[in-house]
Amino acid sequence: xxxxxxxxxxxxxxxxxxxxxxxxxxxxxxxxxxxxxxxxxxxxxxxxxxxxxxxxxxxxxxxxxxxxxxxxxxxxxxxxxxxxxxxxxxxxxxxxxxxxxxxxxxxxxxxxxxxxxxxxxxxxxxxxxxxxxxxxxxxxxxxxxxxxxxxxxxxxxxxxxxxxxxxxxxxxxxxxxxxxxxxxxxxxxxxxxxxxxxxxxxxxxxxxxxxxxxxxxxxxxxxxxxxxxxxxxxxxxxxxxxxxxxxxxxxxxxxxxxxxxxxxxxxxxxxxxxxxxxxxxxxxxxxxxxxxxxxxxxxxxxxxxxxxxxxxxxxxxxxxxxxxxxxxxxxxxxxxxxxxxxxxxxxxxxxxxxxxxxxxxxxxxxxxxxxxxxxxxxxxxxxxxxxxxxxxxxxxxxxxxxxxxxxxxxxxxxxxxxxxxxxxxxxxxxxxxxxxxxxxxxxxxxxxxxxxxxxxxxxxxxxxxxxxxxxxxxxxxxxxxxxxxxxxxxxxxxxxxxxxxxxxxxxxxxxxxxxxxxxxxxxxxxxxxxxxxxxxxxxxxxxxxxxxxxxxxxxxxxxxxxxxxxxxxxxxxxxxxxxxxxxxxxxxxxxxxxxxxxxxxxxxxxxxxxxxxxxxxxxxxxxxxxxxxxxxxxxxxxxxxxxxxxxxxxxxxxxxxxxxxxxxxxxxxxxxxxxxxxxxxxxxxxxxxxxxxxxxxxxxxxxxxxxxxxxxxxxxxxxxxxxxxxxxxxxxxxxxxxxxxxxxxxxxxxxxxxxxxxxxxxxxxxxxxxxxxxxxxxxxxxxxxxxxxxxxxxxxxxxxxxxxxxxxxxxxxxxxxxxxxxxxxxxxxxxxxxxxxxxxxxxxxxxxxxxxxxxxxxxxxxxxxxxxxxxxxxxxxxxxxxxxxxxxxxxxxxxxxxxxxxxxxxxxxxxxxxxxxxxxxxxxxxxxxxxxxxxxxxxxxxxxxxxxxxxxxxxxxxxxxxxxxxxxx
Length: 969
Hints:
single chain; seven-stranded parallel sheet; disordered N terminus
């Protein structure tokens, strides 16, 4: 249900919403038939839709016979005659023809319509006032009303791109005027003229400079989306501020939207912009351009950069008067809708409102349920992240323009490394029992009101229920005490007091499970450390102590106190606390991305003086300590993936498999996705009928399906069933199977519901998978991977044994010691033989089979070098050791040979060494070398055979033979 556009929805209501788009027509054209009294041909329906879209975008729509170009700034004239026939729509701005719309019925594929549009653009009557670019009207649209594509002929390489809606007349007018006055016109036309970033900008780190250069190459190639992956703490926001400044200054971007995950990160980003001095200007970027942090649902008309959250952008598109402050302050993960949001055109925020949208470390859901908010705008999309998942890569079309990971950042001194300090207690591992007869405290989770009650029977709980159903205060106390007592061992260079405890507690961040858990931790930490409110505090969205969370966070960054902060999610991502030296996990996480972001709070570097400013006895930060009190570092972390895993399999087929008891995680996950899609589209009558048949809502069934594939839920069920805190694989498999069967039961046992679901799905949509990252790995019928790999290796060994006397290479490799040398021709003969039917083996396939069987014995990959067959055959025949690419073996032998020469006092000049390495590379690929081959590339580029004889003289021929025997045997 949509909220009123004149009122601000409550935070609770806002979180529970799922808005449907507002239709500009009072009926669905696809539902009408010729028998209906108001029947129109499909193309006429499309034109009605296009008329309504144009009017909402500020155009006056007129028929050619009743044209009045003075009716408004923008006039769309239907059926205007041209030299190529009547055009469906000709767009006039300020009484001058500037564009054409070609209308087609819904379902028409529009790329084939582009030549027709272009024909009308080039054939406007000469007597008609018009603005032409290269003999054409500059703006061309193809539209069905449901799908619209736009081409601007001012662009350096005019390319159609999909747009959510038509542009406003004033937007096209601005582009025409800019083209007249400056020769640019469109934003895309100005990008190619941007000057290159200085080769070694003093104000940027190397990685930041490389990211900006690579991004600008992508923008100049007109790539609509680009992803920058940079490690936490490597300066992504500062890099983005530089990107914005360059686009504003050199490409005259009109407005840029900078999306952050939550309100406090918006404030942090604004400070980054305010502190950035534009090189050579002596002025801050916020002094040169208006930078607005969106705290209300209104964009300042003069703002060049707008900083806000995805939930606020969605609220603005909905037409809400404002967004509740607490909704803007929480992270994207806390306000994720139940299903993908849908947006409608918002005249106050047209599709061309932003030229560029930068998405900084937002929750992965921004590329899932929120994605239509991003795709509403006709803008370049740039992603910044330290931990991209599959969905992120897919959304950005795998256009990764920069990859700068944690190891590189540590190596460059941009991040610090970390040590893991593992803590575990008896209760945290196995739970405990409250014996009958004890007076026990019961506390309301929400109000925290307490009452005492005597338990009549033993109350047993496990580790999973800790701090949720049961609060074992001594478990928290034991962990806290262990952290306190081990601080001198973690930081041995720090001052200790008379109790042999650290005099200055290192800045510490503790991650709690929820706000209630955080409250318990704060109280106990204060007791055990003997410190007060100023030293140990809670920083969550519900922070107490009368302080605003952002004030506490600022103090944690820059002041001596607080020393220890307890949080849930607020400081989990993006927040910069450079003096932080210890991160304590008292909550479990399963997502690798989230864990990396949480861990990343400690990686920031800080100058020695700034560190001593908050921690007096600290000398230098070259690492931080990660205290693991829950086993998160020992857990197989998972990466979030889309629910839909059975693309190409119809709903009917999925339901049929369920009815026959064929249940798998992929099937259940896909069913959850399909039901959510149906639930979001059906009308009231279908919904009522389905609920009557099912006895419950589709949403309830879908939630159980999702719960069944949740790894945490599966583990909890296995723990309950086995009574063990660490159940084995068998128990986990059994619990998983039980959950899956129970989840699909409402569908499997109800044939009438299955049929109704199939009947109600009347959509002709195609699934467009932008999420899964693909590469060809196999092209064969699938059986169990390890069984298939073992079968491949067994067949290969049998083939070698059978043909050892027939193939020259096998004769050489079976003979030990090797009686003769292999040649490239021998290896090529073997490769051709194994590549023939029925086996069709390749080095890559055989290599992969060995890796599947035991990855610990396999190094690297086969690649495309045929010489790797030598490594494969030797590894197969020897049955032990390690499978190593042949070039790696060659280079290892070469280095050993160089060491032997040095020991024998045989020295080589730098030029000679360069040539020897070239010869080694040649041997790795070809097995042999003759002096005549030195006349060919790459040797010819270094002076060829003549240069080699100058360097090595009469020793050259003998050296070639020696190297071939030593390194390529």
